[in-house]
Amino acid sequence: MIRKLSLLIVAVATFSFSLCGHTAQLGATGLIDSITKAGVVFDGDVTGKPFDYLITLDNSTDPNVGGLQLSAGGTITLYFPPDFDLSNLDPAFPLRDIPFQDETQPCVPGNLQCTSVALIQGWPQQPLFPPAAFASTSIDEGANALVLTAQQDIMTIPGIKQIHLILNGLKNPAPGRYRLRIEAESGPSGAVESGEGIITVRTRALRSIAATSVFVKALDGQLEGGVACGPGTLPPNPDNPIYQKTSVMTAAPFVWSFLVWDEDGVPMDDLVVEQIGNTLYKLVRAPEEFPGRTTVGFIKIQIPLGSSFARIEQVDCPKLLPATPVIGATPGVGPQPAGRLDLRFFAGDKPGLYEGKIWLKNGNLVETFVTAE
Questions:
Q1: DSSP H helical segments within 213-363, as ranges?
Q2: How many CB atoms lie within 10 A of CB 68?
Q3: Which of 46, 52, 287, 297 is the 20 to 30 A CA-CA neighbour of 187?
Q4: d(Cα 157, Cα 370) in Å, to the nearest integer?
Q5: What percent of the chain has pLDDT over 90?
Q6: For residues 316 and 297, is the Cβ–Cβ distance under 8 A?
Q7: CA atoms of 162 and 8, how far apart (whole Å)
Q8: Are 347 and 220 in contact (CB under 8 A)?
Q9: pTM of the full predicted structure?
Q10: Residue 331 dihedral angles phi and psi, to the nearest 5°
């Protein structure tokens, strides 16, 4: 079964995204499935804030399914509407390819004092790495377009699934819906394929939950003998927590880690998971210093027919991060403190696909997939 996913916020970090059920964005056509706020920040889609969006291409994010391919010298061109003036970037954040290091304006994970783009393989913090070795970025001012040029053949699976636009030198315009066009020399013999998508700029942020892979290495295989919660790691993060395989009645190998903010950008560092049904849980804000408890979201596990015993457990890791992983302390952009939520999934007693849906009220939804064998 091939499942297509669109991102309603991800990934999380310099190369980030959160995954959700595939329903193509209204107005999206051709190569583009959706254009959404990247998960690395809570306000990447807010008017007056630095532009930080994720383009999800119209292919499956399943790592076993190939994505968009380019031959060396092939291009992906992104045509922006006039309200996003690429010729007028803030000079404090010049156009750079990642990684680019100098003493005054570095463009490296952890300190992105630049405007840049990364080609993503379909899950958080997993770009084609190092990005500059795979594609260079330039601006066509006459067309108001970003041009990505392949530096080598990009043909292997999973290929290009998403494009993370980290345009720190560009501020979002007035609230509204803006149309972006893509043209890619990704067809047979380099034929041009195209599509369009909608950039939505909001008056204010929504609640946000974003999957992250930066804690996978710390958490992987270490929970039986005690929790190892971090620190996070820089890209690449090749272990995919979104699509996993396990055995029946066994935990998925990688913990689900999420970054969470409320609609005011305040880290939700007080979330508690409470079971309210066989496969249904609620996310409750339960601050220690206040008696009030507020339900802000839910978790639903879809299980194979006839399965029992599937469950999730909350992992006892620190719930407040002083800065978003990977973005780090970027002057003028971050650090942005983030809440952290870690969950461990256990498959039930039947083989098949277990699908987790985690969503926030007045916010977005993230999906995860575990196949039990």
A1: 216-219
A2: 22
A3: 52
A4: 20
A5: 78
A6: no
A7: 13
A8: no
A9: 0.91
A10: -55, 130
